[in-house]
Amino acid sequence: MTRVRVDLNISLDGFATTADQTPDNPFGQDWGRLTTAYVGTRTFRERVLHDTSGAGTTGVDDEYAQRYFEAVGAEIMGAGMFGLHEHGDDPEWKGWWEDEPPFRVPVFILTHTPRPSIEMKGGTVFHFVEASPEEALARAVAVADGGDVRIGGGPSTVREFLRAGLVDDLHVAITPILLGQGIRLWDDLRGLEAGYDVTTEAAPSGITHITFRRESRG
Amino acid sequence: MTRVRVDLNISLDGFATTADQTPDNPFGQDWGRLTTAYVGTRTFRERVLHDTSGAGTTGVDDEYAQRYFEAVGAEIMGAGMFGLHEHGDDPEWKGWWEDEPPFRVPVFILTHTPRPSIEMKGGTVFHFVEASPEEALARAVAVADGGDVRIGGGPSTVREFLRAGLVDDLHVAITPILLGQGIRLWDDLRGLEAGYDVTTEAAPSGITHITFRRESRG
Q1: What pLDDT score was predicted for residue A26?
Q2: Numbered residues of chain A with Cβ closer than 8 Å to any chain B Cβ
């Protein structure tokens, strides 16, 4: 049964994006601080950085990182996460992940200006679709080959799917820093916990892993 | 050495107050949901409800509840936490805690309309002062007899003390529910974690206890 999943890193004050980017530091210092534990895992190093040396942490944070990549058959993301807000004018733009992105499945990018699909190395194919959350999800499920569908981000896209009641599994990794600015994941989600089992696990890194999980609606 | 301490219950989306009060339910349902784990501890039952039967939980949440009451020599709170916003016109108003409040120390209530002090049973004395955070803290330290000073709340008052750099120990108990409305603890506190050791502990109840602690500044 296909499950719809979300995993995000957020700050203690609920921000899932950072706002301190500069021309010299295009991701900003805050992004590094927000994702330190995840980026330090062995799974991230292998899967995203193609580092097969075995370096990286293997504790609680790595267990969540492994689950992040398990059994995903298709991905959906917003235009912003793919970089279309900055690079939409460039017809050659292929996202932030170089030639071999870590997804290895069909990825549906929600945009009001669709463009031709792009096939990348390693199994990732980017499709650009103008669609509601429900429509995009139906298309993703159709090609997921029985695997799960992940809503990758950013937080505004995730919130649309949460508000539409489409998400079965939500995992947030909370880093105990206060960013004070950016896009909040939790806005306008009063009562989201109803209908979910919520579990909490603290990692030695200081990260709090909170999981909302519900029975699949079939 | 006197330490300045804060303990608050907040929701996952950062709200430290609730907004669903009705005439029939003056605390609202959300307040109960936000404080279930704390109110269920043996320490709360003994100290606040005067229940000496030994009922209540004795795990992680109770350890934090015990620490809440340990070694406090004076307390500071905002006018709202004392109830002056609703009951300020009543010269006989003595707060929400009946005849024998759980503080048992001098309590300074910050208000623009001071009134005479009130001595309660059990050692609590309410003083009403118009003072800056620094001035109120100096007065509290002077009478704390070497004990700590707690900034009791509400969240706006706590944030004033945090922003002024006056707090040595901040403990928040995060309940995994989304309230979507109220007063946020974390607003305008970007970078607060600098200068603190931050630790995280997940309780079996689902509460996440996060502690910011720094060396006393003397």
Answers
A1: 76
A2: 12-14, 174, 176-181, 184, 186-193, 198-203, 206-208, 210
